[in-house]
Amino acid sequence: MEALAVNVERGPCAVCIERNKICGQNCEFAAYFPNQVLGEYECANQLFGTPKIMKMMKQAPIEKKQDLANSILKEGVAWTEDPVRGGFGMLRRLMWEIELRKLYLRELKDMIKNEKKKKN
Asked: What PROSITE patterns does the database record attribute to this sequence (predicted)?
C-alpha cells in the first residue's frame, strides 16, 4: 500500500510524459528523469530525441547512468541557450566570467594595498 502511494506522489517521469506512456512503478528512467526536470528533458529531447536518449541510457553501466542523465540534460539546456556553440559556449562564458572576477579581485587587492601604504 505504501509503495503505491509513493508512485502516485512521484508522478510520471519526463521520458514517459514525452512518450505519452504510463509510468509504472518499475520505470527504468524515473530515477534519472523525474518530472521535476521536464523542461530540461524537453531541451535534451529536441537535441537528441527520446529514442536515442533511451538507447544511451540502456547501454550505460548502472554506476554511470546518473552521470549520463545529468550530462544529457545539461547538454540539452546548453544547446538551447546557445544554439551555435552549445556546451562549449557555456564553458567559454564561464571562463570569461572567472577571468573578469580575477581582474576585479586584483584591482581590489591593489586598492587595499595602496590604502595600507597611505595609513603608514
From this structure: LOB
